[in-house]
Design brief:
The protein has 412 residues and is of the alpha/beta class. It is built from ten helices and 17 strands. Bound molecules: zinc ion (ZN).
């Protein structure tokens, strides 16, 4: 009885208040906090034309039709369009209003919400990297099946499926041998593949943990998802931060839908291979071998098929979101795409020129425009509110850098 009363009380205090996003901002307000720049969530909501709720428990939700951004004050977990994400930094209340770090806005939220923030790239050649191999077994599975066997089995299926879609596919290994991590990166640099997909299985001492994680390289100046210390080193893969994240998001989304596995989210890490390749890349943890149920599922034809189909669909959606405008295919739901004949594909070496990413940069001056308007027909989920095409950023003078917390993050 008391419990029910308490729940009613919780319901009462959790009633959200809606902040109407009617007025459009001239500026995206920026505040300094803990040595970093933060962007006003009210301004982001208005810029996207989304409505914003903040509940008493700190949960913040921005919504517009199918698009949904969820975060919680002082926590890094949240979701984008229903897919779990770990933000680089927790949102914070600054001057009485909620803010998110500028890095999260430009490198997590924007690449998912607006195609216009992604530079256009053609994808012809995809490199698949089956984790481990040879002397390196990876994590142990049931019945003496190791991670290296499962990553190879799934990767070979993935190779065939991507080839059937017309891509040129190169494997870092296609049998039970061990190319070093350096070898794998060198293969990508030599072949100039346009995408790099590393396939792994996970393991934990906590046997109950299960589910899928997709990793993008951590942006410079941020901590990885399992870490709290920022690292400011810029790696080759950081030239593609937004592409990395969009690719990881699309793949994770399809994996969760198709396998019905637990969504452990899109995460950031500095794994050697995705850190050092000069093209967009992801590392997929396709499930936990240490979990009895998922471990045996991962050995089934069905789970492997669903995993492969999901990765292919995720890649297709990424390719569609980043395709150059003139040849961009219209997204279709029912009609299957006809695979392009392989003979028409140009050699791999021609198609892999790295482009600088579009959109805001972290090192620009405070008064530079933060956002560019999206083209009318880019098929993006969200478009900026049209009246103010070039909002500028405004520094709020009273918010000085916090010297106490700044020192904590300036070391690396
Ligand atoms: Zn592994």
């Amino acid at each position: 009885m008391y419990r029910i009363l308490f729940l009613i009380f919780l319901l009462f205090i959790a009633v959200p208040f809606t902040l109407p996003a009617q007025s459009t901002p001239k500026t995206l307000r920026i505040q300094w906090f803990a040595g970093r720049r933060y962007v006003s969530l009210h301004d982001i909501a208005r810029f996207y034309g989304m409505s914003m709720n903040m509940e008493r428990n700190g949960r913040i939700t921005l919504v517009l039709r199918n698009a949904k951004i969820v975060m919680t004050l002082n926590k890094r977990y949240g979701s984008l369009n229903g897919i779990a994400v770990t933000y680089l930094y927790a949102p914070a209340i600054l001057g009485g209003r909620p803010y998110i770090s500028e890095l999260d806005f430009s490198k997590v939220i924007e690449p998912v919400m607006r195609n216009a923030t992604l530079s256009k790239r053609k994808v012809r050649t995809i490199m698949i990297d089956p984790g481990h191999g040879g002397k390196d077994n990876g994590a142990p599975g049931a019945n003496r099946v190791w991670e290296k066997h499962l990553t190879l089995a799934m990767s070979l299926r993935l190779r065939d499926a991507l080839r059937a879609k017309g891509f040129n596919v190169i494997m870092t290994r296609s049998n039970d041998r061990y190319p070093s991590l350096e070898d794998r990166v060198n293969m990508r640099e030599k072949t100039k593949a346009d995408l790099f997909i590393s396939v792994h299985c996970n393991a934990s001492v906590q046997k109950s943990i299960n589910g899928i994680e997709t990793y993008a390289l951590t942006p410079a100046g941020a901590p990885s998802s399992g870490d709290s210390r920022a690292n400011f080193t810029r790696n080759p893969g950081n030239s593609f931060d937004r592409h990395n994240y969009r690719l990881a998001y699309e793949i994770q989304r399809q994996l969760v839908w198709k396998t019905k596995a637990n969504d452990r989210g899109v995460r950031h890490a500095r794994f050697y291979v995705i850190k050092n390749v000069s093209c967009p890349g992801v590392l997929i943890e396709t499930g936990y071998l240490s979990n009895a149920r998922e471990g045996s599922q991962l050995q089934t034809w069905r789970r492997q098929r669903d995993t492969v189909n999901a990765i292919v669909e995720g890649v297709m959606r990424y390719v569609s979101a980043t395709a150059p405008a003139e040849k961009k295919p219209k997204p279709r739901k029912s009609a299957p795409k006809k695979p392009a004949p392989k003979a028409q594909l140009p050699p791999a070496s021609k198609g892999a020129k790295a482009e600088p990413e579009a959109g805001p940069k972290t090192d620009r001056k405070p008064d530079a425009p933060l956002l560019k308007p999206a083209p009318k027909d880019d098929g993006t989920l969200l478009k900026p509110v049209p009246k103010h095409e070039k909002p500028s950023m405004k520094m709020i003078p009273k918010a000085a850098p916090d010297p106490g917390t700044r020192a904590k993050h300036s070391g690396k």
